């Protein structure tokens, strides 16, 4: 059996999300602070969850800077530390379950484990999305996230963007793997239906066949000589209509020989030569 598409998508997105969240958690780039009055113009300060780095002209980078504004004690930073670490651990557990459930080298994957891994990965995506969104909401609030006073400005840095991407990929990958429950649920419902002896599903009203009674046909007026070629059961039924008379003969026949007088006239015509013509009392063919 080929690996379903939903499993393949989840197995591709989950490791990418794990890598992005790992970089986002460890890299000191959640917030960018610049515009210090007592320092050169090109000096910027990168603030993360575990460390601060000072950079000048993209050439010199010094990490381990002192926390002069109690940035690491801010509530969004502390919550982000705990939730991001939890998200990483949950993602690793979800990938372990996914690798055991998908098992591309077997004929049929384990749909329950694959679906369970999708739920775990989806929860890991929520655990990483919550601190990233909360931190972004209070990014420029100097009371919640301490920072030097104006004209110092704060901006979003690359780690926060990677955290957003990793969280979205985890949510998509977890949802995709969670769809593996569908074949398992379908098979279980089919077995339960067979075990309970449920009746088959009735067809819809649009496919019901209705046998309407055929209307009685009006009997045709036909002539059946001597009762032959009658339909079956015609003798027992009451006849409707009237019997047609027999057709008359097609030609006229005369039993008397109408040419007898003409033959006698021809035999006496040559000898008598009378002016009185011979008239026959019988009709001939010309008269007809």
Task: Walk me through the structure.
The protein has 288 residues and is of the alpha+beta class. It has a domain at 5-190: Butyryl-CoA Dehydrogenase, subunit A, domain 3. Helices cover 44% and strands 8% of the residues. A five-stranded antiparallel β-sheet has the order 4-3-2-1-5. A hairpin with an 8-residue loop joins β1 (31-34) and β2 (43-47). α1 (5-26) packs antiparallel against α4, α2 runs antiparallel to α3 (111-137) and α3 (111-137) packs across α5 (181-196). The longest helix has 28 residues, at 75-102. It is elongated and about 160 Å long. The protein starts with a helix and ends in a 16-residue tail after the last helix. The chain crosses the membrane at residues 78-99, 111-136, 156-184. Keywords: Cell junction, Cell membrane, Membrane, Signal, Tight junction, Transmembrane, Transmembrane helix. It is found in: Cell junction, Tight junction; Cell membrane. Residues 224-288 are annotated as: Disordered. This is Claudin-23.
């Amino acid at each position: 059996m080929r690996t379903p598409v939903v499993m393949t998508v989840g197995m591709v997105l989950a490791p990418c999300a794990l890598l992005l969240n790992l970089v986002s958690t460890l890299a000191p780039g959640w917030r960018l602070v610049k515009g210090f009055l007592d320092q050169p113009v090109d000096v910027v300060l990168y603030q993360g969850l575990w460390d601060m780095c000072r950079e000048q002209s993209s050439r010199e980078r010094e990490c381990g800077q002192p926390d002069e504004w109690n940035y690491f004690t801010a509530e969004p930073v502390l919550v982000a530390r705990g939730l991001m670490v939890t998200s990483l651990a949950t993602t690793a557990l979800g990938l372990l379950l996914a690798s055991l459930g998908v098992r591309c080298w077997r004929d049929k994957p384990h749909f329950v484990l694959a679906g369970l891994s999708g739920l775990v990965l989806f929860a890991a995506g929520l655990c990483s999305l919550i601190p990233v969104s909360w931190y972004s909401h209070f990014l420029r609030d100097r009371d919640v996230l301490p920072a030097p006073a104006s004209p110092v400005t704060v901006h979003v840095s690359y780690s926060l963007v990677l955290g957003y991407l990793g969280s979205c990929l985890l949510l998509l990958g977890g949802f995709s793997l969670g769809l593996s429950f569908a074949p398992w649920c379908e098979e279980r419902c089919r077995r339960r239906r067979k075990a309970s002896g449920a009746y088959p599903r009735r067809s819809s009203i649009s496919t019901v066949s209705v046998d309407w009674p055929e209307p009685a046909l009006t009997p045709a007026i036909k002539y059946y000589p001597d009762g032959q070629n009658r339909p079956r059961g015609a003798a027992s039924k009451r006849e409707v209509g009237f019997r047609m008379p027999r057709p008359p003969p097609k030609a006229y026949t005369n039993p008397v020989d109408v040419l007898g007088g003409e033959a006698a006239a021809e035999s006496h015509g040559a000898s008598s030569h009378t002016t009185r013509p011979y008239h026959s009392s019988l009709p001939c063919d010309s008269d007809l």
